[in-house]
Structure formats: C-alpha cells, structure tokens
Write a structure and sequence with these properties.
It contains twelve helices and nine strands. It is of the alpha+beta class. The strands form three sheets. Strands 2-3-7-6 form a four-stranded antiparallel sheet, with helices on one face. Strands 1-4-5 form a three-stranded mixed sheet. Strands 8-9 form a two-stranded antiparallel ribbon. The longest helix has 35 residues.
C-alpha cells in the first residue's frame, strides 16, 4: 500500500493531468517507455525520496539501477547505449523528475553532459574505453565547466592546461560540479594557448580533488562539488580531439537543457496531482477543498500550464528527432517550462496550507529543487538574452 496520499495519487496519473489527450501525440512504444520509467520511480524513488532529501543523502546504488533501466546516455548510439529518440529521452526525464530533480539531474550529468562529450568529441579509443561502463552505470562521470568566478560567462574561465612535452598539466578550480566526488572521470574544460579544450580526467589522478558542497537548501538528494586541479598531469590522449572552443561544452549543455524542458514538467505534474488529491480529501468548512472556487482556479491554472508545457516539450522533441531544433528554441523551452514549473509547485503548496511545508508532501521539495534547475544550464537571464538575440539580431551579453 502507498505510504502517503502523494504516493497513492502517483499510482494513477491517467485522469486529470492530461486534459487535451497528449497521449494521442505519442506512439505505443513511447507510452510503454514512459510506463517503465514511471514504474521504476514509483518503486524505487517515491518511497525513499523524502528521507534522502531530509538527510542530504545521495543513493549511490541508484546509478546501476538506472543503467539497467537503460536511461544513461539513452539518446546515444553504440557503445552499449540504448540509441533511443529525443522524445523517448524526454519522457524518461519527465518521469524521473516527477520523482525528484536529483534523479533526473544524475541522468543528465552522466548522459547529456559527460557521455555526450565523449560520444561527440572523443576518439574511438576514448569512446570504447569509457562509454560502455557509463551506460551500464558501473562508471560514473561528471562535467567540469563552471568555475567560482565563471558561471554564465565560461569564456572567462581561469582553469588552464599547458603543454609539458607530450603531456598536459592542468591547474584551476571548478564549482557546482555534479557527481564529481563519486565519479571515476570528469570532463574538464580548460583554456589552452589554442583556446578552450576538453580533457578526460580520471578522478584518481594526483592533484585532482573533489569536495561536496554542504548546507544546500535545494537538490539535497544530489551531489555538487568544488574541484581543485593542482598540477594534474595527463597524457596527450586525454584530450577530446574533436572539441575546439566553447562550441564543445555548449553542444553538451544543449543536450542537458533539452532534458530539463521535459523534466520540469514532471515536477510540476507531480505537484499538481498531489495538490488535487489533497484538495479532494481535505475537508474544511464542511466540504472538500476541491469544492471551493479559489481552489478550483488554482488547479485549473496549474493544469493549463502543464498541458501547454507538455505540448511545447513534445513539439521540440519531434524537431530534435528531425534534426531541425535550434539553440534559441531550446532556450524557449527551458526558460518557459522551468519558470512555469516553479510557479505551479509554489501554488500547489498553498493548497496544503501549513501541511505543505513538510516532506510528507512533494510540492515544496520540487519548488526548492527547481531553484537549482532554474539556475544551471543557463539562468533565466541567459536564456532571455539568447531569445532576445534571435528576435532582434542584437547581442546584449556585453
């Protein structure tokens, strides 16, 4: 039996989350994929996430389980990867983030960032060495781009790689690097005399240190780290040969941003359904909360934005599969869906009254997590300027 009303509600999502028959836009295979990930989340994530969040515990065992499920690097072909479509990956992200943003973030860091960097920019030897284990979840990767003084402006990164004979020697710092303290490798982006290049850095290399960032108010069931690189010596073959300039990491970031478009709607949907279930069962002034006009208005507004956000996600997913999706369109999806998801989660919390501030219910946990999602892979401001640049033809970044 479910342990809480939220879990009971999550067991049946077929009623009022989809007001416009969105399933008619999906194939039977896509619906089956969604069902398998949802079943995993219901069995492995929902019963445990409140404790993981409260204790700031990352469930390491979940990585291999996600590998078995086939969602690590699932959009990539070959090397043990599932080779699924962009829409399939989006549906998986949707269901994983309905459990918690930390779980979707794990899949994003592993697959959309670290694995994509190797798959897209690496040599055949690098792909064969690392990707099969990463797809299986037996090898964990991380992605080191952001620095303490270079978040939205990666061109100003201070991490530098210099040649020493045939080797490379890296020095610098990175911050907010997901999974780094438990990873076996980190993709480190560093400035060189030839511009920005990417390196595969085994985390056991002398001079590499990853320290988890404590006292977080968001993403508490996830790991983000500070990285210090002190005379980290790497052989020439550690460099990703096809990554030159910032286009290298940006290509990976766009993969992660795409997954967020779907994932944010998962958090929003879970919060809406939790609020709906509570409103139907909670009685005040002699009637269920769901019978009050103001409550119905809240629920209707949430449902409208979820359905619109899902239409946007599906449309962009079909474009991605057709090879026509443009970077500014990814920014539209990320900016809109995360912004609306935060508003939905916050509004859903109000339906619970004081009970909504506890971990017995999901909306405030989702809202807190989405503050991180709103910030990483490009802030609202960055995506606004990307879209503004497309609309006006004028860059407002400088």
């Amino acid at each position: 039996m479910p342990d809480s009303p939220d879990e009971a509600n999550a067991a049946d999502l077929s009623d009022t989350a989809d007001l416009i028959d969105l399933d008619a836009l999906l194939s039977p295979a896509e619906i089956a994929l969604r069902a398998s990930v949802r079943e995993f989340v219901d069995a492995e994530i929902r019963p445990n996430i409140a404790d993981w969040y409260e204790d700031a515990t990352f469930p390491l065992e979940i990585v291999r389980q996600l590998g078995t499920l086939g969602v690590l690097g699932m959009h990539l072909d070959g090397y043990g990867c599932a080779g699924r479509s962009a829409v399939d990956y989006g549906l998986a992200a949707l269901e994983l983030e309905a459990g918690d943003s930390a779980i979707r973030t794990l899949v994003s860091v592993q697959g959309s960032l670290a694995m994509t960097a190797i798959h897209r920019h690496g040599s055949e030897e690098q792909k064969a060495q690392w990707l099969p284990g990463m797809a299986a979840g037996t090898t964990i990767g991380s992605f080191g781009l952001t620095e303490p003084t270079a978040g939205s402006d990666p061109a100003s990164m201070k991490t530098f790689a210099r040649r020493d004979g045939t080797d490379w020697v890296l020095n610098g710092s990175k911050r907010w690097i997901g999974l780094a303290s438990i990873a076996q490798l980190t993709i480190v982006w560093a400035m060189t005399e030839e511009g920005v290049r990417g390196f595969i850095v085994p985390t056991g290399t002398p001079g590499f240190t990853a320290t988890p960032i404590p006292r977080k108010l968001s993403m508490r069931a996830s790991i983000q780290c500070d990285i210090e690189l002190t005379d980290v010596r790497l052989p020439a073959e550690a460099m990703l040969p096809e990554a030159r300039g910032l286009r290298g990491p940006f290509a990976c970031l766009n993969e992660a941003r795409y997954g967020i478009i779907w994932g944010a709607m998962g958090a929003a949907r879970d919060s809406y359904l939790a609020a709906l279930d509570y409103a139907k069962t909670r009685t005040q002034f002699g009637r269920p909360l769901a019978g009050f006009q103001l409550t119905q208005e809240k629920l209707v507004n949430m449902a409208l934005e979820i359905n619109k956000g899902m239409l946007l996600a599906i449309h962009l997913g079909r474009m991605k599969d057709a090879g026509t999706l443009q970077p500014h369109q990814i920014s539209i999806g990320k900016l809109n869906n995360v912004r609306e998801a935060i508003a939905i989660c916050r509004e859903a919390r109000t339906v619970f009254g004081g009970n909504g501030i506890t971990l017995d219910h999901s909306p405030l946990r989702h809202a807190n997590n989405l503050e991180s999602v709103r910030t990483y892979e490009g802030t609202d401001e960055v995506h606004t300027l990307i879209i503004g640049n497309h609309i006006t033809g004028e860059s407002a970044f400088a």
